[in-house]
């Protein structure tokens, strides 16, 4: 077939680089792999517990023995890290179960580290799952007392380090908590434990399913007095700078999808590792649409994760990690 001669300039044809799968792969600018993922795990007391979270299909509240099995599976897929969240056996006004060495989180950290020594274990440092009121710190009336909370967060971080965590990740959004945690870790001899700070954590509606999973919905009010206003971008840079000055080793932006502009701004602002959290509401929306046959789940998930990496994230905390790692392995 003779092609009609085109008057379009021959040098202006970007489609040449898209003509075949091999060529597209060769010139691809952004690649994702299993090593980019951190998988969140929810642990509970008991044995052989595996309870699916209704609003998060294929995610489970699991006992420590099953957490160890899951960690081995995750490691075999090439996923290098897990973040441990937990539901305690008891709650009180100050969340003291958060630093109880017999609580599910500390037990899971120790057990996973023994079973998979090379795996990176991140401990979530917060109090909302552990307090009877569901807020992230010590209360003074209906106000979360920032400075009184710092001492409690120090106890949580040190307990997780003692259990075997490689990284502690304060997600509470109290001012000064990175400095307080760094000091406590150093004073206890944990100078090599990293602090991965949720420096940029917005008061987001995307957290809904997580609060079901972790039983952490506030009993009154909300968290807007300490988490960031979703409308603010310049404030994010201020939060990042403060946490860097206090000794943070890594920075998290949370949530991810509606905040990719913030991920990009932070990426251009810092040279430290940058993490974003593909949160529960983002996961649940994809799962719901896929279950209804409205989307191609595999393509949507891999495209979404690629967008986070393209925006500048080095690592992604995501509930899609296991599925994505399997899909990526299939495509190799």
Largest sheet: 8 strands, parallel, barrel
Task: Count the beta strands.
Answer: 12
Question: What proportion strand?
Answer: 15-25%
Q: Ends: how far apart?
A: 36 Å
Helix content range: 25-40%
Mean pLDDT: 93
State the order of secondary-structure elements, H for helix, E for strand. Answer: HEEEHEHEEEHEHEHHEHEHHEH
The Rg value, from CA coordinates, equals 21 Å
- Biggest sheet strand order reads 1-4-5-8-9-10-11-12
Structural class from helices and strands? alpha/beta
**Uncertain stretches:** none
- Count the DSSP helices: 11
Walk me through this protein's architecture.
The protein is α/β, with parallel strands linked by helices. It contains eleven helices and twelve strands. The strands form two sheets. Strands 1-4-5-8-9-10-11-12 form an eight-stranded parallel beta barrel, surrounded by eight helices. The chain has a two-stranded antiparallel sheet with strand order 6-7. β4, α3 (104-115) and β5 (120-125) form a beta-alpha-beta unit. α3 packs parallel to α4 and α4 (146-163) crosses α5 (177-187). The longest helix is centred in the middle third of the chain and has 18 residues, at 146-163. It is globular, with a radius of gyration of 21 Å. The mean pLDDT is 93.
């Amino acid at each position: 077939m003779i092609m009609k001669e085109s008057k379009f300039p021959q040098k202006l044809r970007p489609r040449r680089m898209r003509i075949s799968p091999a060529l597209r792969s060769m010139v691809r600018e952004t690649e994702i792999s299993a090593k980019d993922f951190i998988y969140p795990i929810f642990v509970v007391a008991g044995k052989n517990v595996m309870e699916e979270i209704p609003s998060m299909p294929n995610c489970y509240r699991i006992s420590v023995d099953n957490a160890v099995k899951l960690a081995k599976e995750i490691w075999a897929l090439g996923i290098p890290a897990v973040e441990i969240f937990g539901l305690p056996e008891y709650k009180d006004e100050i969340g003291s179960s958060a630093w109880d060495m017999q609580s599910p989180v500390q037990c899971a950290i120790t057990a996973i580290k023994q079973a998979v020594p090379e795996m990176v274990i991140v401990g979530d440092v917060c109090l909302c799952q552990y307090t009877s009121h569901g807020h992230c710190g010590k209360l003074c009336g209906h106000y979360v007392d920032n400075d009184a909370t710092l001492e409690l967060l120090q106890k949580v971080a040190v307990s997780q380090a003692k259990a075997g965590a490689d990284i502690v990740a304060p997600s509470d959004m109290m001012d000064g908590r990175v400095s307080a945690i760094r000091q406590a870790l150093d004073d206890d001899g944990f100078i090599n434990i990293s602090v991965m700070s949720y420096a940029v954590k917005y008061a987001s509606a995307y957290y809904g399913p997580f609060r079901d999973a972790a039983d952490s919905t506030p009993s009154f009010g909300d968290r807007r007095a300490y988490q960031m206003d979703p409308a603010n971008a310049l404030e994010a840079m201020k939060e990042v700078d403060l946490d860097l000055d206090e000794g943070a080793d890594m920075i998290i932006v949370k949530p991810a999808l509606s905040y990719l502009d913030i991920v990009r701004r932070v990426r251009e602002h810092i040279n430290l590792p940058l993490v974003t959290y593909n949160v529960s509401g983002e996961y649940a929306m994809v799962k719901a649409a896929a279950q209804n046959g409205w989307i191609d789940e595999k393509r949507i998930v891999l495209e979404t994760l690629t967008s986070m990496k393209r925006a500048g994230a080095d690592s992604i905390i995501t509930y899609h990690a296991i599925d994505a790692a399997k899909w990526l392995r299939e495509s190799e």
